[in-house]
Amino acid sequence: MYDGGVRAWPAAALWLWGCAQLLSVDEFGGTTSGAGAGGAAVTATSDGQTASTPESSSVSNPGDVGVGTGGSAPTSTGTGGWVAGSKRIFVSAAVLSPNFLASSPDGANALCQKYSNVLNPKGTFKAWIATATAPATCTAGAAYYLVDKATLVGTCTELKGGKNEHAINMTEFGGPPAGTYVWTGAFPSGNATTATCVNWTSNAPSPVIGTIGYNNVVSSTSWSNASNAMGCSNNYPIYCLEQ
Question: For the whole prediction, is pTM greater than 0.85?
Answer without folding.
Answer: no
